[in-house]
Structure formats: structure tokens, C-alpha cells
């Protein structure tokens, strides 16, 4: 029999949900300013860190590879992403940002103030504690 969540845990879960909701709202708004969908912006953001195959993008975003292919197709049509052979395995194609894609990803990242502003109010020690608690919650 499942027990009811205690009031403190319930409040924490609700606060996490509020934070996530606000983050996604701002992310969608920032993406729209660059004429991107939120999904396109997330893929571009991932690729700005390192080129990767569609399968890995799908794993990171927890979606179907066919969805990622469509997103990459649209980003490629806009000149933000290109496909190139993987130097480690020429049979595999990597999606990689173009110079315009990197510029757009940086502008997107710089325009996200929701997390930056509240986190700036926390000391470095408080941010480390928060990071460590979130990692622990995620099992990493």
C-alpha cells in the first residue's frame, strides 16, 4: 500500500515542478525569438556542446530517433546544423552545428535569465549544495 507523501516532500515536489515549468516557459520564449521551436533549440544546444549521432540525441532528449531526424532536417534547412561522417565510423552520420548554429546556440543560452538570476542570489556554497542534492536525487 502506497503511503501518502509527507507535507514537506509534497512542497518540494511542487517547487521542483514550478521551477521546471518556468524554465520551459522561458526556454520556449527564447527559442521563439530565434524562430525555433523548443525542441529545435534543445537539439541545437546539445549539438553546440559536441556533434553527435541522431540516436544519442534521442537518448539525451528521451524521444524517438525519427523525431530527432525531423528536427535536424529543419535545423539543417535553416543552415544551423549539418550532417557529417563520424571520423570514428564513416558509416555513422553526426549532426553538428554550423558557425551560424553555434552563434544562435550561444545567443539562446545567454538569453535564458530564469535560472541565472535566482542562482545568482545563492552563494557558491549554496549552489554547490543544490547541485549535489539534485545529482543525488537523480542517482548520479
From TrEMBL:
- Domain (HTH marR-type): residue spans on this chain: 1-139
> Out of the domains of life, which is the source?
Bacteria
Gene3D superfamilies from the xrefs?
A: Winged helix-like DNA-binding domain superfamily/Winged helix DNA-binding domain
Keyword Disulfide bond in record: no
Q: Which UniProt keywords apply?
A: DNA-binding, Transcription, Transcription regulation
Protein name from the UniProt record:
MarR family transcriptional regulator
Amino acid at each position: 500500500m502506497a503511503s501518502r507523501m509527507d507535507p514537506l516532500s509534497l512542497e518540494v515536489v511542487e517547487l521542483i515542478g514550478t521551477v521546471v515549468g518556468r524554465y520551459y516557459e522561458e526556454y520556449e520564449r527564447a527559442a521563439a525569438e530565434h524562430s525555433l521551436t523548443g525542441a529545435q533549440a534543445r537539439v541545437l544546444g546539445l549539438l553546440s556542446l559536441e556533434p553527435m549521432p541522431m540516436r544519442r540525441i534521442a537518448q539525451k532528449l528521451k524521444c524517438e530517433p525519427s523525431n530527432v531526424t525531423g528536427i535536424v532536417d529543419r535545423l539543417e534547412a535553416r543552415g544551423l546544423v549539418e550532417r557529417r561522417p563520424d571520423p570514428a565510423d564513416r558509416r555513422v552520420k553526426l549532426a553538428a552545428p554550423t558557425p551560424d548554429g553555434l552563434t544562435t546556440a550561444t545567443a539562446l543560452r545567454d538569453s535564458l535569465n530564469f535560472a541565472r538570476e535566482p542562482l545568482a542570489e545563492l552563494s557558491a556554497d549554496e549552489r554547490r549544495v543544490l547541485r549535489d542534492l539534485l545529482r543525488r536525487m537523480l542517482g548520479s
